[in-house]
Each structure stands twice: as C-alpha cells, then as structure tokens.
Amino acid sequence: MRAAVLQEIGQDKLEIFDDVEATGFGPGRVRIRVRATGLCHSDLSAMAGVLPQPAPFIPGHEGAGEVLEVGEGVTTVKAGDRVVVCWLPACGACPACKRGQTELCLAGFMNAGTPNFKRPGGDVFGFAGTGTFTEEVVVDAGCAVPIPDDVPFDIAALIGCGVTTGLGAALNTADVEAGSSVAVIGCGGVGVSAIQGARLRGAAEIVAVDPVLSRREAALRFGATRAVSPDELPDAKQSVTAGEGFDYVFEVVGRSATARTAYENTRRGGTLVVVGAGAMDDFLQLNMFELFFDEKRILPSMYGGGDVLRSYERTIALWRAGRIDLEGLITHRVPLGDINEALDQMRTGVSLRTCIEI
Question: Mean pLDDT for the chain?
C-alpha cells in the first residue's frame, strides 16, 4: 500500500512509497482503511524533532476511515463501521482514567514506541502510535471510535485532533465565562477552534493574534471580534481592556516566547491556557514574585482537557446544530501524492487545515 514516510528526523520532505505494510493485526486490534486525514502542526514538529518520535515514521494522527476487519475480542466496532482515529485512547484502568482525567492516560503514548508498519528495508513507526498518511493503519480497538453515518470523513478527521483540542481548551480547560475578554495567539486550525469555543461560551471580545493576514481574516469569520498582528497586540490590549489585560489568553503556538507574551497580556487574576505543543528544551521563564503577586492561573490543555469520547460527541452535536463551522476549517485539499504541498501550506501559514484525501 502507499504511505508517506519520513526517513530521518530533520528532513522537511516526505517520500511516497507503495511497498508499505500495516502490521500488528490480531486480538484487540482493528484494521482501518483511511479515507481522509488532516495535517496538524504536531506532525511538522515531530518531523523536525521538536516532539519525540522514532524514525522512520509515517506522520498523521488526525484521520478517519472505515473498518476493514477487527481482531478477536473487539466488540466496539465491526467491519464496515465509519470511525475517527483517536491517537490518545483511554485505557480505563490507570490512575488518571480512574480520576476521570482520561486525556492524561499514557496508554496511547506507549504505542508510539512500537512499529506498526514495515517496508522491505525494516520497521516503520506511526506517529503517536497511529500514522494516518497512509491507505491503511492497524491500531488498538480504543483508537477506532465509531461515528454516525452522516459525518463526512473529512469532518471526522478534524474532530480527531485539532477541533477537539481547540474547542476543549475553551470549553473544558478555561471554562470561558460569558461576557469575558479573550485573546488567542496563533490562529491555525486549533486556534480558530478555540475562537469558536470562546464564542459558544459568550465571550464579549475575542481578539485573534496571528502574523498571517489570511488567518486573521479567517478568524473574523469564525467569531473573533477583531484580528491583529503580533505587533498590534499592545494596542488591542489597551483598546479592549484599558490596558489591564485579557480575562483569558490562549497560547496556540507552542513556544516559550509566545507563552511569555500570553502571560504578559493576561490580566492579574486572569487565565493563561497553554495549548501549543512545544519542545522539551524550550523553557518558559517566570519569576517567583510575579507568580505570587499577579495570581494568574496557568492552565496547560492536553487534547482539549476533557474526556475525548464525550468531546467527540459534543463536537458532532454542535456541528449538526450549526453552532460551529467545521467545513470552513478545510481551506485546502490534496491527494496523498501531493503531501509535500500540504506541508508547504502549513509552514507558510496559508492554510487553516489541509485535508489529505486518500
């Protein structure tokens, strides 16, 4: 089968091979025919070595498709079911799951260290234990989440990561209060989803911050009340909050510099939500006095900060009701053979989400 493979960490191009085989099918496992997958910035981060991932590997973790076959003991799905790929399944038995913090379950991360593909030259890993830039993938049954028949594959793919992460940051982690002021730094697919979440919660002012004009314009269509470049943020802070700072600031870039900017633009007693996935050697510096004196809450948000399966269901319900726009997030579509074009679209910032149709 065909798949897009990164041979070595640090390379900026993927190679398309047609001699890849999905491995590991057996009891408790599911084989999925991937139909659509989104390109998330985390894929680029893994390719660059910012996020740890063994190589060679197949990127992609935001996918949807149909079940081809199920292994012994699998009862949650059957052949022919439409599913979204969940890269962070909950085991249900670990301390985090028992506390109800299923987004902190480490079972999914354990899969990342086990190859789930192979080529004639040897084993190939799947990013985050999945790897959806391919025609087929074999995953644990918990990674195959059934979806209703009326949800298109491209929409379902977005729900698998970016939309769930952004919406959840606003609805679960921050629990944005009606009438509040919000700033979102980084307005790709995840940032725009956070904007939609803040709008759903009734935020009075939502300021989108991004260096790319097309993304700022898109943010306004999705619910931002104003959109500014990073250089214009101080003026927006003064205009919207009289210089006090925003009630909620979402950092959706994954860098210490933007996290520091987010902190400085959060009001005293306000909430900074860290959504971007950054590098282990990129440190955010805060002094002990400001932590004490400003009493700002710093809330990391992992995969939307809530139960993933509930978040999927909520997102589908909101989409059906017309309360959120998911179709509009897909700004570009490319076939698998043009995957490197999608990478360029992400790097230049011209896309919110590129859908790779397989």
Answer: 96
| Residue 56 identity (one-letter amino acid) | P
Rounded CA separation 276/258 (Å):
10
pLDDT by residue (tens digit) across 92-149? 899 999 999 998 998 877 777 789 999 998 999 999 999 999 999 999 999 999 999 9
For residue 173, which of 307, 39, 327 has the smallest C-alpha distance? 307
C-alpha distances in Å from residue 233, one per residue of 241, 245, 264, 268, 299: 11, 11, 11, 17, 21
| Alpha-carbon gap, residue 355 to 346, rounded angstroms | 11
- HEC secondary structure over the chain: CCEEEECCCCCCCCEEECCCEECCCCCCEEEEEEEEEECCHHHHHHHHCCCCCCCCEECCCEEEEEEEEECCCCCCCCCCCEEEECCCCCCCCCHHHHCCCHHHCCHHHHHCCCCCEEECCEEEEEHHHCCCCECEEEEEHHHEEECCCCCCHHHHHHHCCHHHHHHHHHHHHHCCCCCCEEEEECCCHHHHHHHHHHHHCCCCEEEEECCCHHHHHHHHHCCCCEEECHHHHHHHHHHHHCCCCEEEEEECCCCHHHHHHHHHCEEEEEEEEECCCCCCCCCCCCCHHHHHHHCCEEEECCCCCCCHHHHHHHHHHHHHCCCCCCHHHEEEEEEHHHHHHHHHHHHHCCCCEEEEEC
CA quadruple 43, 217, 84, 91: dihedral sign: positive
CA dihedral 256, 59, 24, 162 (to 10 degrees): 60
List the beta bridge partners of residue 144.
Answer: 85
Q: Which amino acid is at 136?
A: E
For the ranges 66-80, 100-114, 115-129, 208-222, the lowest mean pLDDT is seen at 100-114
Question: What are the distances in angstroms from CA 11 to CA 20, 124, 139, 311?
Answer: 19, 16, 26, 34
Q: What is the pLDDT, as a whole number, of residue 313?
A: 96
